[in-house]
Specification:
Oligomer: heterodimer
Structural class of chain B: alpha+beta
Radius of gyration of chain B: 28 Å
Number of strands of chain B: 13
Strand order of the largest sheet of chain B: 8-9-12-11-10-13
Shape of chain A: elongated
Number of helices of chain A: 14
Largest interface: A-B, 47 and 55 residues
Helix content of chain B: 40-55%
Largest sheet of chain A: 6 strands, mixed
Strand order of the largest sheet of chain A: 1-2-5-6-7-8
Order of helices and strands of chain A: HHHHHEHHEEEEEHEEHHHHHH
Helix content of chain A: 40-55%
Strand content of chain B: 15-25%
Distance between the termini of chain A: 43 Å
Radius of gyration of chain A: 24 Å
Order of helices and strands of chain B: HEEEEHEHHEHEHHHHHHHHEEEEEEHH
Structural class of chain A: alpha/beta
Distance between the termini of chain B: 36 Å
Largest sheet of chain B: 6 strands, antiparallel, barrel
Number of helices of chain B: 15
Chain lengths: 356, 474
């Protein structure tokens, strides 16, 4: 799983309190996620990891189909034209990945330059905007050392001129199949956060052009999913990112704070050595989203969090989980608090009975 | 769900100590399987949402397994055996057979539905495959109705009927949950669950160190496509088939284990005949006319009303039929249960008799004038809540119930007996013409059109509380 750009920030946003996750991200230059796991857990990772070939292929095919022919992107133009308010053949377009292809630093800098020139022309100089800019590169203003560049480059799939706001709005391609316009909620959370990163980065670029310009861009972006029928794009969906954008801003602050503490703790030693001293914030969704879930579960071995977020909230952390198990099965309580807990647990567990 | 979050969490703690999942009900809420019960388990290509293997057939027999060596091809004639099976099933339903389709999980059912969408109107597909599409869509449409007895998704049904000693997120792995429901003898349940959860149980091939089946199938597919050596192609096909068939069989086996645990719940009985009849009518209608998504505003309103009524009726049936769910419903105030303290006499032409019920349940979700009916009775009686009072003890309250219909059955109640009442049953026979007219006459502005004209009825000056009380019936 990528730890760069919007993917990293989306992960941090889903669990901003977790220092361990932040350490893994910071250590990205030295070791991969799997290597980080092996270093902290002391054993190889035996679960599924990384994107499947079929998913990668499907994503690439979907994008390629939208952007064919290169520099023309007929399907994308047809999809976006109604939103812009012009006919598809009147949509003007620049494909920056075509003009400066690849992930090399030089290409990236070139795309940054091209993006800024196009933004300035439209937003500052008043030139007729290029309607669609494919693969722009934006720089997120993190407020920390420029050496931490691996997560400052934010690269939306495209941005397009949105007349109601008189500015560009980001869009991402997602090859998930949607039926009746419904996208499963578990898939939407992360893509919304990634789109929110695009918004924050685009606002930073607009602010750099002229302070105050960024006010035009509200918390909004577009997602292009697939229909059940081959690689055809579904109607682009406008996403309300009023919740996601603050989560990203909070994630940036959290990451900066964690970074300071982690580097202070490491004091020059490899970041991975700080793992036992870092705060972890195990949540139920970690099982499906983080390679370190198994390691963290061992560290919180007797914690009600093992029974899920709701249980964690209801049971609190004052009494170990195993003790709760003993109490509900009739062990003699050691004090008034345990007696109260036992009474409540048994009363609730016995509703309807517990036997087969 | 009948249980509160606190109750579920407490049961989870209990289950953890017991080393096995504990039941939330004494009966399988969908009822026993009908005579025509089939199973369909799919293995798909991730994100393509294309089927690459299907295990299918009568539920009580080993499945027929179909593997697709080139699932992205436009040639879908390889689906013919499955298509034939589904079309035959559809014909039996149209001829009046009651059916149930088991699948491993809702994601599997969505794959079946998607298969239907892709081919129902696909002019390039053989007719038998298009007919299969119609049947798959008709089945897929049933999932929208809560309490429907036709589509049984094993994972979701297990989640409704059992609670394990692990987290809800871990419960969503079918093999993990099945292990908790029926832990292997002599083995620690946590170790058994960890082992069971290594391979996915969500209708996809495994891709873990030592079992990179998904990546292997991708390689074999390329080899088979590109090679000119027939022997090499045959070997690639054979290995692909074995990997896909093993995955489909594993999903099938998990589904059957889950099904067996559900049907083994002790009070499981045949499904409610009215519920089955209504669901079968709906399925037959979708088979004949096609399953389409409603999009027009009035049709959406009608459909939402229908589903709302269905949800309420499903919840009521659940606690009527199952003592465990009843206990939870009492605790949550959905059912009023208490001791009869007094019963007023009925005289023709006189005031309607009042029954006083003393209850100690912590919550009573009834308001004055709510219509209620007695549980556990075979006769028809209707009452309304007339008021509340202080009980004989600190934790007791009195609910006064006014009988308004079914007076001749009042002798069934005796002072001192325990009685149970619920909100009046939802009438599932929605008069659709009346509903349509009602909806059409309402101002359409919530969905389309201009806002309604403000009739401008001013709020009367004076005491608002008095004005509100004046609106209440005496």
């Amino acid at each position: 799983m990528s730890l760069s750009g919007s993917t990293l920030l989306a992960r941090v946003a889903m669990n901003p309190a977790c220092q361990l996750q932040a350490a893994m991200a910071l250590d990205r230059q030295t070791r991969t996620e799997k290597q980080f796991f092996e270093a902290v857990a002391g054993k190889p990772f035996t679960g599924e990891y990384g994107e499947r070939d079929s998913a990668r292929r499907r994503g690439a095919k979907f994008e390629r189909n939208l952007l064919q022919p290169p520099g023309d992107a007929r399907l994308l133009r047809e999809a976006i034209a109604p939103i812009i308010g012009v006919a598809p053949d009147q949509v003007t377009l620049r494909d920056l990945d075509n003009e400066a292809p690849g992930g090399a630093q030089a290409s990236r800098f070139k795309r940054i330059g091209l993006t800024r020139a196009l933004l300035k022309a439209a937003l500052v100089n008043g030139a007729p905007p290029v309607h669609v800019i494919i693969k722009p590169t934006l720089v997120l203003n993190t407020g920390i050392s420029p050496n931490d560049v691996h997560w400052r480059y934010i690269e939306p799939d495209f941005i397009f001129w949105y007349p109601p706001l008189q500015c560009y709005v980001p869009g991402d391609f997602k090859s998930f199949v949607v039926r009746d316009g419904i996208v499963p909620g578990d898939k939407l959370e992360r893509v919304r956060l990634q789109l929110a990163c695009d918004v924050v980065a685009l606002r930073d670029e607009m602010h750099a052009l002229r302070p105050g310009l960024e006010q035009r861009l509200g918390p909004t972006g577009y997602l292009v999913f697939a229909t059940p029928y081959g690689l055809k794009p579904d109607t682009p969906r406008r996403e309300d990112l009023s919740g996601a954008v603050p989560m990203i801003l909070k994630a940036i602050q959290a990451f900066k704070a964690h970074r300071e503490q982690i580097l202070a703790t490491a004091a020059g030693a490899p970041i991975v050595t700080t793992a036992p001293d870092l705060a972890l914030n195990y949540q139920e969704k970690c099982v499906a989203t983080c390679i370190l879930a198994g390691y963290c579960r061992q560290r919180i071995a007797d914690d009600p969090r093992l029974l899920g977020d709701v249980a964690s909230e209801l049971l609190g952390r004052g009494i170990p989980l195993q003790r709760m198990v003993e109490l509900v099965h009739g062990a003699a309580p050691a004090n008034a608090e345990e007696a109260r807990l036992q009474h409540d647990l048994q009363a609730a567990a016995n509703v309807g009975g517990t036997r087969r | 769900m009948s249980y509160s979050q606190q109750e579920i969490v407490a049961k989870r703690v209990f289950a953890r100590g017991a080393g096995r999942a504990i039941p939330l009900a004494r009966s399988f809420s969908m009822g026993a399987d009908p005579d025509l019960t089939i199973g369909v388990c799919t293995i798909k290509i991730v994100t393509e949402e294309q089927v690459q293997a299907i295990a299918f057939g009568p539920i009580d027999q080993p499945p027929q397994i179909l593997t697709r060596l080139d699932p992205l091809s436009r040639d879908v004639s390889d689906l013919t055996p499955f298509a034939q099976f589904m079309v035959t099933t559809g014909a039996a339903i149209s001829a009046g057979a009651n059916v149930r389709l088991w699948t491993a999980h809702e994601a599997g059912m969505e794959t079946i539905d998607l298969l239907g969408r892709r081919y129902v109107n696909n002019s390039e597909a053989p007719q038998i495959v298009r007919d299969m599409g119609r049947v798959c869509r008709a089945f897929g449409a049933q999932l929208q109705y809560s309490g429907q007895p036709i589509i049984a998704c094993a994972l979701e049904q297990l989640l409704k009927h059992f609670v394990s000693g692990q987290s809800p997120a871990e419960d969503r792995h079918l093999a993990s949950l099945v292990t908790w429901v029926n832990p292997p003898r002599g083995q620690d349940v946590f170790e058994a669950t960890s082992a069971a959860a290594l391979l996915p149980a969500s209708g996809i091939l495994p891709n873990i160190p030592g079992r990179m089946d998904d990546a292997r199938v991708e390689v074999l597919r390329r080899v088979a496509k590109n090679t000119r050596d027939p022997a090499q192609r045959a070997a690639a096909h054979a290995e692909m088939h074995n990997l896909l068939a093993a995955a489909a069989q594993r999903e099938w086996d998990l589904m059957v284990r889950a099904r067996n645990s559900l049907l083994a719940l002790p009070d499981t009985a045949p499904a409610d005949a009215d519920v089955v009849g209504e669901a079968q009518d709906r399925l037959t209608y979708h088979l004949g006319g096609g399953a389409f998504s409603v999009v027009q505003p009035h049709a959406v309103s009608l459909e939402l009303k229908r589903r709302e009524a269905n949800d309420a009726a499903t919840a009521q049936r659940a606690w009527r039929d199952d003592p465990m769910r009843r206990a939870a419903a009492v605790r949550r105030g959905r059912v009023l249960e208490g001791e009869i303290l007094s019963i007023g006499a009925y005289t023709r032409g006189g005031p309607r008799p009042i029954m006083e019920i003393a209850t100690r349940q912590p919550i009573v979700r009834l308001r004055q004038n709510d219509k209620i009916t007695p549980l556990d009775q075979t006769f028809s009686m209707e009452a309304e809540v007339a008021g509340f009072g202080v009980g004989r003890h600190a934790d007791e309250r009195i609910v006064r119930v006014r009988i308004i219909a079914g007076f001749k059955y009042m002798s069934a109640f005796t002072i001192g007996a325990i009685t149970a009442w619920e909100g009046a049953a939802v009438n599932l026979i929605i008069r659709e013409t009346q509903m349509s007219q009602h909806i059409a006459q309402r101002a359409p502005w919530p969905l389309t059109g201009a806002p309604p004209h403000d009739a401008g009825s001013p709020i009367a000056a004076g005491d608002l509380v008095a004005a509100a009380n004046a609106l209440l019936r005496p």
